[in-house]
Write the structure tokens for this entry.
Amino acid sequence: MSENKTSTSSSPTGLVFGRRNYILFIASILVVAIGFLLMSGSEDIYSFTKITLAPFIVVAGFALGVVAILIKPNKSV
């Protein structure tokens, strides 16, 4: 008896994430970069921008990266 066995291995047929996921991930990278640029800003070490605003922006960028990974991609492919 000869059976036709179809290959059930999971071969990659497309991208893992959707377009929205990649856009959000790129946006998160840009937000983190802006936060680090703000941290390296002016000469004043104890400025509001360096010790409060910039770390908040960096953490928000990392949170956006987590959201970009965890959000479900659209199935309209």
Residues 19-70 form one domain. The mean pLDDT is 84. The CA atoms of residues 22 and 68 lie 7 Å apart. The radius of gyration is 21 Å.
